[in-house]
Design brief:
This protein is an all-alpha fold. The protein contains 3 helices and no strands. The two termini are 14 Å apart.
């Protein structure tokens, strides 16, 4: 039903399947999220080491929001695999 709403040009036989672009989107989303989360964590650790004190874990905001986005993409691709 979601596929018919998002892609009205699909035929009835294709409506239950996920377009192949979603699998690429899932891989890209996971790679991008992991890369950005690790970069943010490393920058945060460097700030903590250089300043000599613990800063608030601001990197969690991007890590958690990215995790929700990745979970959404994974959920959509698992609907009709």
């Amino acid at each position: 039903m979601l596929a018919r709403w998002l892609w009205p040009e699909l035929k009835d036989s294709q409506a239950g399947s996920v377009p192949p672009g979603f699998f690429i989107a899932r891989s890209v989303a996971i790679a991008l999220w992991l890369t950005l989360s690790v970069v943010n964590l490393v920058v945060w650790l460097m700030i903590c080491l250089i300043s000599g004190g613990w800063d608030d874990p601001w990197w969690l905001w991007s890590a958690l929001i990215g995790a929700l986005a990745v979970a959404g993409v994974c959920r959509v691709t698992r609907v009709r695999e």
